[in-house]
Write a structure and sequence with these properties.
The complex is a heterodimer of chains A (659) and B (344). Chain A has 28 helices and no strands. Chain A is globular. Chain A is 81% helix and 0% strand. Chain A has 659 residues and is mainly α. Chain A folds into 3 domains: 201 residues, MetI-like fold, CATH 1.10.3720.10; 72 residues, no CATH class; 191 residues, Orthogonal Bundle (MetI-like fold), CATH 1.10.3720. With 344 residues, chain B is an alpha/beta fold. Chain B folds into 2 domains: 209 residues, Rossmann fold (3-Layer(aba) Sandwich); 67 residues, CBS domain Like. Chain B has a 6-stranded mixed sheet with strand order 6-7-8-3-9-10, sandwiched between helices. In chain B, α13 links the parallel β11 and β12. Chain B is globular, with a radius of gyration of 23 Å. Classes of the chains: A mainly alpha (659), B alpha/beta (344). Chains A and B meet through α11 and α12 of A and α3 and α5 of B.
Chain lengths: 659, 344
């Protein structure tokens, strides 16, 4: 990208040239004027044709989905599609969930804590084992033992399925070009789908409860499992494969003895990513009646009881950290450069197993093993609620002023413009500016998404959601670029930042609602704050990497030419980090959308609220489902418009054969 | 006895219409022209040669000359476009996948420039890999691995991992892995190019020693002329996918086929490579000759002292036949000059 820009500018910079003569490489002379001109025209057309905002009624799409649900409910036990298809799927998944449920509860609390520690000790080392034991104990201490285990059951079921399906698919995607090419667009769409969008179709096909939640989670968690596995298999050095081929290995021997072992650390990372995604989704599935910590949080959020939500949020964070540390350490250990003695490898698991069995048997035989000791309980609910009240009492003016200022200056004007724009004008604008920014193909896809939203009959809500997303994205980028640049320029700042970012990225999205609700109560603005907190860490990371990736030789040359630090930043580092910035914007906007929609739970309204209401009230189901699709379409729209160069580079890395 | 390897009019063309080049006028184009016209790269072009049992056959050329592609075509690690390869009389291109695997497992083993060791396996299991995939039991393959391990001088390193070894030791593991299946033919693809010069010399000595001890047929790819001259019974020089010349080291140095080869061998100390055969002249009728003749196959350097001290020209014989004589006048150009002499 930057190469073509430089090329195009070379003739302009050539000395001794007065008037730029037309040449094949020169950009059109009017190109610079084109964008402002188009903006002016668009604004003029808008002023001429803007309409007052009519509220979304129950559109044809919502009615259709409502009828669809009625049909499904009537035929669930007779239609062959359900009788021999979805119902068996549901049954199979529910058997798996029951089996894991039975196993985890069968261990008893002492057995499960020991098992977590033993597993961590075997795959990740004793430090991680201590962390795991402490973490699992904390579930009981917080008084959330059963909720935590339920969440763990769903997470493990979904991850097990995601790995069983995703790893072979990833291998296929890396080895069979046709499969890789077919999967790529599917995975793209799956990855930009906000968590909320999965839920309604799941209830339609699989009713509510654990099986539907597991399948929704599976769908959410499987893309990274496939992608990262494919990446790992693709990165196996060709020289090693060739050497094994020259010795006469069959294809299966190559896979089993060379490719899979060499890709093992990457595959463990794929499992890690699948677990983190699954955990984040499992909490959201509380909305379709899945048991676990999500239930606690949803109920607490509905009552704006921050304290009660805090305990559950803490338990989720602890679970995320424990599972993340175990799998990350396991990935490190799986690296071929880590050599452990054969004896430890053989005896370790046996000892661990013996300890788990012993503790489980002891726990089941004694009375204290039946239930987590009540004497160890502790809760943060009361102090947190007191702190929240204190904040409300003392900071109310400040937070309220901030909320109102943002609403009045940014949110309301943008929302007004968007909601009063006729949908066809919006479509034309998307096509034109999309083509300029991301190319004609992306513009057409984005345009189709716009038309789809209109067809779903949720135009007004979609535009309100879009306004919220835009404001949150701007804020995200401001903070993200600021911290990212600071992190790239000051090593000490980066050292402080890194663990914070690590922690932030392991937390499931739901948790981010808590501080936002604590500060700003239930409102549209709360969703924005949560979205910004949620999306800033990855943006910071991408910006920092982009700036740091600027070659040291270029920076050195610029410094030796006498650049000030400011000139270095603005003239060298930021322009050269453009791809990183574009990628960050793309990532940020997709994450913001996901969170803004979840904000429907805390008063953000619009599409998110439609989805939540669809779960709560039967008559709103059709509208909720339509809203889910509208969210997906919004995601596609935003993703296509911002895809720029960054995403493409990522894909190429997957496709590239290892050299 | 058939040649161990016989390569006959072998072609390898990479690119979109690779199959439509050989046998058409396109095949006569130069490499660059072909690339410009069709986008195809002719890596190996119409190559034929034979390797005799027990011979060390070196293929030498600069990078991009097609030598690595050529060696990979021998066991179809790269599928040839046309032509034929026979190994021990059996046509390789006609082999079923199963038969081909048999060939790779038992007949022909390869040593690679970048080793290609499995980082997650200990040295002993790397060496035993070839036996493992044949289904040889663990005890037997470890016994065999230990044998070849000491053959390449790596005793005591069995349980280390590849990344704990130096480059030279890693390549010894690669060599041991190739030897473990006891193949009749060993292919070396620039095996020592990634190593330091001193270690490279050790490894070359190692290969000579192994060749003397185990008597295999070796095909050795290199871009290093010194290496080629040290190791090769015969050397094939490749350029732009074609064989320019195939001959013994002294044929290459003594009678380069064209300017390209001549350029290659210009820096070679001729007296070290050429034998007396290349510098004899006919004896004049009335000439007084030394009593003790010299065999024609003696390398020039080894005769310098005697020729310089001898008062008379020394007769050069091939068995009982006298080829001519040699004296100081004949010796000097070989020691100092680059003028191509003509064989007697």
């Amino acid at each position: 990208m930057s190469a073509t820009v430089t090329d195009a500018r070379v003739p302009v910079a050539a000395p001794g040239e007065d008037a730029p003569a037309p040449g094949p490489r020169r950009p059109l002379p009017g190109r610079r004027l084109l964008v402002p001109l188009l903006l002016l025209v668009t604004a003029g057309v808008y002023l001429a044709v803007r309409t007052s905002a009519p509220a979304d009624g129950d559109g044809a799409a919502a009615r259709f989905f409502g009828e669809l649900r009625d049909w499904v409910d009537a035929n669930r036990d007779t239609s062959p599609l359900f009788l021999y298809g979805f119902n068996y799927l549901r049954l199979g998944v529910s058997l798996l969930v029951d089996a894991i449920h039975g196993a985890l509860y069968g261990l008893g609390w002492a057995g499960l804590v020991t098992a977590a520690g033993a597993l961590a000790a075997v795959v990740a080392g004793w430090r991680t084992a201590l962390l795991a034991v402490a973490g699992f104990l904390s579930f009981g201490v917080l008084g959330l033992w059963e909720e935590s285990v339920d969440t763990l059951v769903l997470t493990l079921s979904a991850v097990l399925l995601a790995v069983l399906i995703g790893v072979p698919l990833g291998v296929l995607a890396a080895r069979v070009p046709a499969v890789g090419a077919a999967l790529r667009p599917v995975l793209d769409v799956m990855q930009i789908m906000p968590t909320f969008a999965y839920l309604a179709p799941m209830t339609l096909l699989f009713l509510i409860g654990s099986p539907a939640a597991t399948i929704a989670t599976l769908i959410y968690a499987i893309p990274p499992a496939i992608r990262i596995t494919a990446l790992g298999i693709g990165e196996v050095p060709a020289a090693t494969v060739e050497a094994a081929t020259a010795l006469g290995s069959t294809r299966w021997q190559l896979l089993g003895k060379v490719r899979l072992p060499l890709a093992r650390p990457t595959i463990v990372l794929a499992v890690n990513q699948a677990i983190m995604m699954a955990l984040s989704m499992v909490v959201v599935t509380a909305l379709i009646d899945a048991p676990g910590l999500g239930q606690t949080i949803v109920q607490a959020l509905e009552r704006v009881n921050v304290g009660a939500a805090f305990d559950a949020g803490l338990a989720i964070v602890v679970m995320a950290v424990v599972l993340d540390r175990i799998t990350t350490r396991a990935a490190h250990r799986a690296a071929p450069t880590v050599h452990r003695s054969v004896r430890v490898r053989a005896v370790g698991p046996l000892v661990a197993l013996a300890v788990v069995v012993a503790v489980t048997v002891l726990g089941r035989m004694s009375s204290w093993g039946a239930e987590f000791p009540a004497a160890w309980r502790a809760s943060f609910a009361v102090p947190v609620n007191e702190a929240t009240r204190w904040v409300e009492f003392h900071w109310y003016d400040a937070t309220e002023a901030l909320k109102n200022a943002v609403s009045a200056v940014l949110l309301d004007p943008i929302e007004t413009v968007l909601t009063t724009t006729p949908w066809w004008l919006f479509l034309v604008a998307v096509l034109i500016f999309g083509a300029l920014a991301s190319g004609p193909r992306a513009a057409v896809v984005a345009g189709l998404a716009v038309a789809g939203v209109q067809a779903l009959g949720l135009w007004q809500h979609a535009m309100q959601t879009l306004a919220t997303v835009l404001v949150a994205t701007v804020a995200t980028m401001v903070f993200g670029v600021l911290f990212g640049v600071l992190g790239a320029r000051h090593d000490r700042f980066a050292r402080v930042l890194r663990p914070v970012l690590d922690a932030a990225q392991t937390m499931p999205s739901f948790v981010y609602l808590l501080p936002a609700v604590a500060l700003f109560g239930a409102s549209r603005f709360t969703a924005i704050v949560a979205a910004v907190i949620y999306a800033v860490p990855p943006v910071v990371r991408l910006v920092e990497r982009g700036v740091r990736d600027v070659p040291a030789t270029v920076v050195e040359a610029a410094v030796s030419a006498g650049s000030t630090p400011r000139q270095l930043l603005w003239k060298v580092q930021l322009p050269m980090a453009r791809r990183g910035l574009l990628l960050a914007a793309n990532q940020g906007i997709v994450m913001v959308l996901a969170m803004v929609v979840v904000g429907g739970l805390v008063g953000a309204g619009a599409l998110g609220y439609d989805v939540v209401a669809g779960f709560a009230q039967r008559e709103d189901f059709g509208r909720g489902l339509a809203a889910g699709f509208a969210i997906v379409l919004l995601g596609v729209l935003l993703d296509r418009l911002t895809q720029g160069a960054g995403r493409r580079a990522d894909h190429d890395r997957l496709r590239q054969p290892a050299t | 006895m058939p040649p161990t390897i016989a390569v006959d009019r072998l072609w390898k063309v990479f690119g979109p219409k690779a199959g439509k080049v050989v046998g058409t006028p396109l095949a006569d184009l130069s490499r660059a022209e072909l690339r410009a016209r069709t986008g195809c790269l002719a890596a190996v072009r119409d190559v034929s040669f034979q390797v005799e049992p027990g011979e060390v056959f070196v293929v030498m050329g600069l990078s991009g000359s097609g030598k690595s592609t050529l060696v990979r075509c021998l066991t179809r690690l790269i599928e040839p476009t046309s032509g034929e390869v026979h190994i021990d009389g059996e046509p390789v291109r006609a082999m079923s996948p199963k038969r081909l695997r048999e060939l790779r497992r038992h007949g022909v083993a390869m040593v690679f420039q970048h080793f290609g060791l499995l980082p997650h396996r200990q040295v002993v299991d790397n060496i035993a890999y070839g036996l493992e995939i044949q289904g040889v039991g663990k005890a037997e393959r470890h016994r065999r691995a230990a044998e070849v391990l000491s053959l390449v001088g790596l005793d005591g390193h069995e349980h280390q991992y590849p990344d704990q070894l130096s480059g030279g030791m890693q390549q010894r593991v690669g060599l041991a892995r190739a030897l473990a299946t006891d193949p009749a033919v060993l292919l070396f693809d620039e095996p020592f190019s990634a190593l330091d010069p001193l270690i490279r010399r050790d490894m070359q000595a190692e290969v000579r020693r192994l060749h003397a001890e185990v008597g295999k047929t070796l095909v050795f790819i290199t871009h290093d002329l010194a290496e080629a001259l040290t190791l090769g019974d015969r050397i094939a020089v490749m350029r732009d996918g074609r064989l320019v010349q195939v001959g013994t080291p002294e044929e290459l140095v003594g009678a380069p086929a064209d300017d390209y080869v001549a350029d290659f061998v210009r820096e070679v100390p001729r007296a070290d490579v050429l034998t007396l055969r290349w510098i004899t002249r006919p004896a004049r009728p009335d000439e007084v000759l030394a009593d003790q003749p010299l065999p024609a196959g003696t390398v020039i350097r080894d005769t310098i002292e005697r020729v310089l001290r001898a008062p008379h020209p020394i007769p050069v014989v091939d068995g009982d036949e006298r080829l001519g004589v040699v004296d100081r006048e004949q010796l000097l150009p070989a020691l100092i000059g680059h003028r191509p002499p003509v064989p007697a």
